[in-house]
Records
---
Amino acid sequence: MNNKVLHPRALEPVTLLMIVLTSVVGAIIGIQLITTLGISANTSIIGAIFAMILGRIPIGKLIAFKSVHRQNIIQTAISSATFSAASSLMLPIGIPYVLGYENLVLPLFIGVILAMFVDALLLYKFFDTKIFPATGTWPPGIATAEAIKAGDKGGKNAKVLIGGVLIGIVGSILKIPMSAFGVAFIGNIWALTMFGIGLLLRGYSVQLFNVDLNEYYIPHGIMIGAGIVALFQVAFTLLSKRSTKESEELIYSKDQKEIRQGFGVGFVAYLAIALLIALIGGMISHMSFGMLIGFIIFATIAAFVHELIVGIAAMHAGWFPAFAVAFITLIVGILIGFPAPALALLAGFSAATGVAFADMGYDLKTGFILRGNGSDPVLEKEGRKQQMIAGMLAFSISAVVVLLSYQSYFAQGLVAPVNHVYAATIQSGVTGDVAKQLLIWSIPGALIQLIGGSKRQMGILFATGLLLINPIAGWAVLVGIILRVIFTYMTKGKKESEMTVFAAGVIAGDALYSFFSSILKIGK
């Protein structure tokens, strides 16, 4: 690409107008879905299709949306607004409301808004590093990019993509998790195999072993062990001197110094937010000074760890156990002995981190592919900047939409269903035996993560599967991996690009079906 080619700006009047419009729509969709169905749909493909349609309307400046980069800006905005409104904002503030602590809703809302912005900024800082490489899978990002490319260029890949979309839709109609099937063709085989095995074990543990894994906190313990090892692996990566700066910069656009700075700034930012939430939430009257300090430090560490684990799972599998990992934080908080109001704030703060991080990773992956996979560093740097501006605008708009609407939803009893799980756990508490179970099962989790290494993330993905109740997705992943191996062997690895396009189509088809079927359910 020519370095003189300028990337479209997010603040151009017509682009800005479409960012505002799609962000409002995305935020409303996100709130509706999380409070009625308990899910948050990926609207990236919808945003991309909307921008493609605009570019084909022969009216004035709308033709400018023929640019794949403008289409990318729009999909970034609607995706950011949908996920942030639903999972970063509406879900967390519902936890204190369900528990009857209405006075804590606004303090937590202020905190999770700030956490959401920090979340996305940290991904922007970490994207295209040794920890979160741009060449990582980020499956929904690939799907959106291939859809935009097919709409722009057509040709053989467009046919392959359309075929994948149709298969994705048909499979979704048959209640098969086609995103899991599609991811199997493009993700790390080791990580995804462990993910699939985890899904199957959780789904069939009662039938096979007459044991409910969740009842013994086995998934939670394994995630804790894997998460601790993953953190040490990240630290080792940052401190390792084996790769020179010169060789590092040939692969990544950001060096280890920038990553360390990001970790430092992120930790301080989360510490400040945790302190702010504790103070304006009145925790000083519920806890001793020592317990208050402990709460602030634990909340900070939990938010950072939650973000990294969710980000790793999202990058490798396209699925992230955000609610489940926040539940682990809550369990540990109960064992420590924090009072119920503090636990409500802790659960909300933890649940708010990681989602914007993962979604921004998907969006920047889309842009990375559309901008030539880093072949033009100048264009890539400017493109990321414009996507980040679009994302920040979308976050701001989603915050306003949630602020204006949450009281109306709560008054109707509309909260995210998982809020009742958090509330029930806080009210009932957990026994001392839980700590023992967590400790025991953290050992195999740590060993699996250690054996797999930082590149495979086997422990994290195995625990992710165990935390999700979706055995059919486990079958979809493993069948997809088997077909991938067969196809690669038969073609001698010469058609990997077509396999990637097909997988992107399958994921896109599943996203389209899920989105429209969810909207129809809301309409009923």
---
Amino acid sequence: MYKKKFFLILVSFFIIASAWSQKGFPILESAKNSITFKGNPTNATDRKSLAFSDKGAWFGFGFLEPSNQAGFSGPFLMTEQNGVWLSTSFVSLQLKEENKQEIINWKSALVAQNSYNSHLEQQFKNEKLEVKQQLVFLSGHSALQRTQITNKSSKTITIFPSYNSTLFLDDLKLSNENNVLKITSAKSIAVGYIQFLKSKAVIEISKQGYQAQTEKLVLKPNETKEMIVSQSFIFPQYSWKTENETIQKTVFTTLLNNTQKEKEKQLAQLIAKKKSIYKDQIYSDLVAKLVLTLQTNTRIAAEGLKHGGLFPSYNYEWFHGFWAWDSWKHAVAVSNYDTELAKNQMRALFDYQEPNGFIPDCIYRNNLLEENNYRNTKAPLAAWAIWKIYEKTNDASFLKEFYPKLKLYHNWWYKERDHDQDGLCEFGSTDGTVIAAKWESGMDNAVRFDESKILKNGEKAYSLNQESVDLNSFLFAEKNYLNKMAEILKLDDEAKKWKDESAVLKVKIQNQFWDVVTGWFYDTTIDGKRLIKAIGCEGYCPIWAEVASVEQVKAAKANMMDTSSLNTFVPLPTLAANHPKFKPDNGYWRGPVWLDQSYFGINGLEKYGYTNEANELAHKLMHNAEGVLDKGTSIRENYQPVTGKGLEAFNFSWSASHYLMLLLEDK
């Protein structure tokens, strides 16, 4: 009888716990603090800490490490060239009693700081007060910061709150316009607006910053009152009047709850797509980290960026723009949870397509200050991205929009980058420089280009004196994707043309770039007579593109699984570990692991049925790369293949993108 009662009580407990969990946000809770946003910026260009942002905003915030301030660090403004911190904490709270003494020591009273995909929150507590601060983004223009103050004492307390800040930048102008603190800059056309929403504020402006004294708060025992501040940074193409109307109507609790619901649903849908081998919670938390990485790098359209998209990394000063092949990769990953953003990421680069089909390497918001790079393009992966988006949407109108642009871009390669007109293309440049031609490959200092020379094809059209296996594999894949698109669009003659071209190119790639002795694909001299032998990541591409023969993949697999060659601690590096020029530490494309290339290799093995080998390599890629599965550590640009150490930029989008692709059912 007692056992039966205990069983019923236990069942009741689990039912109640389950119901509570469903009302809450269990995925967000499990994945909290997946990236550390803590740090006290000491100057405008201090990049030691990361910033949280959402909804495509061009600014972000973080947590202050224990200090004498109560607020969030920042904002970090991406509206300025290359990104700057406006202040250590621009909306920093002080709470004083009638005797003008601080009622709380923020440094000793700090209890908790937690970041979620949805928002930031922190808590302070002493014998008199409990203070909770939360920050959530309303839109790509505004964030709201709420402070809730609870009287924990047995007596009524009168508090005099104020906000203040000291600026890092001397090019800013602060002004008080109808009790709104307005921020303008000589270096940006974006305008900032700070509003103290629940209270009248007396704002005083100085050369160093400002102080805003808000109305006093009288708190009875156990009573809670709140203060809300909005921070907006808006470009002229958007309406401040409209944004402000939205701010005034917004209920903070509703906004926060809706954002949490949105993020919980987003992550739940992604987690449901995970491959069965990634069922453990650690991989669900990784999904949340990867999405958060992409979220913090997302920007709404502004100035020269006519559509929204993703930075490679806001944290690195030169990555405040959209790059072509980065964009193709971002779009494929993002299409798993936000197809409109994925579509716009593709549109952003094609907005700058030239009449001959050329796509610039990178574009910037303010292309007067940071000139778009027309010296080269990037490897042709656009059709892959468009097709992947179509697979998620079945939107034939999207294919119709892009098919002629893709066709123009694809044909451009054969007109401008096929020096000897043999149907095999070369990387090159528009300005005749070797460095820009190497940039076009995306593998700037790869060993295969050590002896490269430049050849002139025509006006603003130059090629390297070698034919590249990765480039032609990508073009093979593009022909197959264009064939599929033409079939959907009922362009039968064009579909047949792409299919025929694909068959011809397949034979050329299998014959010219393959070395039966070493079992690998290599670039060749432009006449196709000599292999440029260095086992590198370009050899993964024919496998990913499914242009390699079954026999060739079987032989290449041996190199990919060889621990002395490509199966390093973090596997599938850019250059084989047994090559004399292998440079694993900061070697850039001469050894370190870049996630896109590792993905091409692993995904390629999957396509040829080598599932166990692919899973083994993917497992090492996730578990051995520094911090990938750890809480608090951001995703890096590339990784040291022997030790696993993270290298180069922090919070890197295409690394996050390819990890996400590996986790999901996405062959």
